[in-house]
């Protein structure tokens, strides 16, 4: 599965990488972030634009899995 | 050391220090500086100065003198430094304040700002935490500079939106203050890094006797701010502000998340939030329009309703 590693990146980059991955259309894919801000921002972007995702938090890292 | 002449100091969350020099004169002293928020050095200088001067206007005072504070790296060309200082000087001139000097040091990251002195009659000083029940809340600049600055970093904005963001941040709160000087303003603050909600929380005070009720549909927003908030283009500060305020602000279920996010969005050189008498709101808005600016009625000061801030 394709993984977008956005750990250590500051906003708005993680959201833009998610946007790009969705545009590329290879579902499912995983996005990793390690900060509360991209976690919130990706949730908002995905929810408001109707994209399906699940997110698991572990030790301060967030693993998003986007499906079609 | 306690000096009774220090009217507003470190122990309150007010915008500046106020020192009573005589029965007629109160001195307002402020300092604010930050790293560049926009690419253009002249605009950065204008914005940093408007932001530093804003604390004086928030207190209902008149800026008189200012001192530059500049950090710059050796690799920065002198023309860039000159443009930053020109931007600051032009804004101070517009404010009627004299730049009387300043200090610069070498630093890896550029930072610019000013320490501003203002004068006011001691009886006319405006506090930020004394809103009167029944007053209406008026805001003098639209929100969204934090979200838009984040978006601008990635070139996500229309040029017109960037232009309006820059001009909004560079605008002095001079007119917003002066148009209200003839009015009985019960509380006044400027909206900066803590966002509308953070500064409103300070205005509501800590006594649990006042609730500021905001109407979310009346909150003015910069072009594309709602779009950016909806798309998750928000700065870390917006989430920090929300976390910090916690349950001091309550939101009705039907308030859109993007609007509430923007109410926490950290502002650079934001507008004034004033509590004024209901009968003054239209004369104030007319006075602002006559000066080419706008003011928005955004809420009301109410007796305690369970939290310092309620958003409907």
Plain-language structure description:
The complex is a heterodimer of chains A (about 70) and B (about 300). Chain A has about 70 residues and is α+β, with helices and mostly antiparallel strands. Helix content of chain A is about 35%, strand content about 35%. Chain A has a four-stranded mixed sheet with strand order 1-2-4-3, covered by helices on one side. Chain B has about 300 residues and is of the alpha+beta class. Chain B folds into two domains: about 5-125, PurM-like, N-terminal domain (60s Ribosomal Protein L30, Chain: A), CATH 3.30.1330; about 135-310, Phosphoribosyl-aminoimidazole Synthetase, Chain A, domain 2 (Alpha-Beta Complex), CATH 3.90.650.10. Chain B contains ten helices and 13 strands. In chain B, helix 1 (about 40-60) crosses helix 4 (about 160-170) and helix 6 runs parallel beside helix 8 (about 235-245). The model of chain B has no long low-confidence stretch (mean pLDDT about 95). The chains are: A alpha+beta (about 70), B alpha+beta (about 300). The interface of A and B includes residues 36 and 40 of A.
Care to give the gist of this entry?
The complex is a heterodimer of chains A (68) and B (312). Chain A has 68 residues and is α+β, with helices and mostly antiparallel strands. Chain A has two helices and four strands; from the N terminus they run E-H-E-H-E-E.
């Amino acid at each position: 599965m394709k993984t977008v590693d956005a750990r250590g990146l500051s906003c708005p980059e993680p959201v833009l990488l998610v946007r790009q991955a969705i545009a590329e259309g290879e579902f499912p894919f995983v996005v990793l972030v390690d900060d509360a801000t991209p976690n919130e921002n990706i949730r908002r972007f995905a929810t408001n634009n109707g994209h399906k995702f699940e997110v698991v938090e572990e030790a301060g890292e967030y693993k998003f899995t986007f499906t079609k | 050391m306690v000096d009774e002449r220090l009217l507003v100091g470190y122990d309150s969350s007010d915008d500046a220090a106020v020192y009573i020099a005589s029965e007629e004169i109160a001195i307002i002293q402020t300092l604010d500086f930050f790293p560049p928020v926009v690419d253009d050095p002249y605009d950065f200088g204008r914005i940093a100065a408007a932001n530093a001067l804003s604390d004086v206007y928030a207190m209902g005072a008149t800026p008189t003198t200012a001192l530059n504070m500049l950090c710059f790296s050796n690799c920065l060309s002198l023309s860039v430094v000159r443009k930053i200082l020109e931007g600051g000087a032009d804004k101070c001139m517009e404010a009627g304040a004299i730049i009387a000097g300043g200090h610069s040091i070498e630093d890896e990251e550029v930072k610019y700002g000013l320490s501003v002195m203002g004068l006011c009659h001691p009886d006319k000083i405006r506090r930020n935490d004394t809103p009167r029940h029944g007053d209406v809340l008026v805001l003098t600049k639209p929100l969204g500079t934090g979200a838009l600055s984040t978006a601008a970093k990635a070139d996500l904005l229309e040029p017109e939106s960037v232009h309006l963001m820059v001009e909004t941040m560079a605008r002095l709160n001079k007119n917003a203050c002066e148009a209200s000087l003839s009015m009985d303003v019960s509380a006044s603050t400027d909206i900066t890094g803590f966002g509308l909600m953070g500064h409103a929380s300070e205005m509501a005070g800590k006594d649990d006797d006042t609730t500021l009720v905001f109407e979310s549909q009346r909150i003015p927003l910069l072009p594309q701010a709602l779009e950016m908030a909806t798309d998750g283009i928000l700065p870390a500060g917006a989430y920090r502000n929300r976390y910090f305020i916690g349950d001091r602000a309550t939101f009705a279920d039907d308030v859109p998340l993007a609007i509430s996010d923007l109410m926490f969005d950290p502002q650079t050189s934001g507008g004034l939030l004033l509590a004024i008498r209901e009968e003054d709101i239209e004369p104030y808005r007319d006075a602002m329009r006559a000066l080419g600016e706008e003011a928005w009625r955004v809420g009301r000061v109410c007796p305690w309703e369970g939290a310092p801030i309620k958003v409907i």
